[in-house]
Specification:
Blueprint lengths: L5 E2 L5 E3 L3 E5 L3 E7 L8 E6 L2 E8 L17 E8 L10 E5 L2 E7 L15
Parallel strand pairs: 2-7
Antiparallel strand pairs: 1-2, 3-4, 4-9, 5-6, 6-7, 8-9
C-alpha cells in the first residue's frame, strides 16, 4: 500500500482506491480498484444519499524471509460518494471481479430522458 496512506485503528494503511465514474444510458457505473479484497472483506453501505465502499486486503508475510520493501501489502480501502436524487437507490447493484468493484447506479424512472408529446390545441 502507499506509504502516504493514513493509518486505521488497526495500524493498517488506509487508502482511496483508484475510481472511475462512467455515465451510461441507464445511469452511472462506479469502478473501484481494490486488489486483494475478497467478497467477505468488502462492505457497501447506503445511508440516505451517501454510499460508502470499504474493503480490507490482508497478506501474510512469507515466514523466515526478511522483507526489504513493500508497496503492495495489507491495507484498507475506503471511498464515499454523495448520490444524486436521480439515482434509483432501490436498484443499486454491485459485483467484485479480479479486484475491481463495479457498482451500478441506475437512473430513477422519473429521471430518464424522454420526449414530450405535443397535443394539438
Amino acid at each position: 500500500m502507499n506509504e502516504n496512506a493514513a493509518k486505521t485503528e488497526k495500524g493498517l494503511p488506509r487508502v482511496k482506491p483508484a475510481t472511475d465514474i462512467i455515465e451510461t444510458d441507464d445511469g452511472f457505473l462506479l469502478l473501484l480498484d481494490m486488489p486483494g479484497v475478497d467478497k467477505e472483506h468488502l462492505i457497501i453501505d447506503l445511508n440516505e444519499d451517501e454510499i460508502k465502499i470499504s474493503g480490507k486486503a490482508e497478506y501474510d508475510a512469507p515466514e523466515k524471509r526478511k522483507i526489504g520493501h513493500v508497496e503492495f501489502g495489507s491495507g484498507e480501502y475506503f471511498r464515499s460518494f454523495t448520490l444524486s436524487h436521480i439515482v434509483d437507490k432501490e436498484r443499486i447493484k454491485a459485483t467484485l471481479k479480479n479486484g475491481v468493484v463495479e457498482v451500478s447506479l441506475p437512473r430513477a424512472a422519473k429521471a430518464q430522458p424522454r420526449k414530450i408529446e405535443i397535443q394539438a390545441g
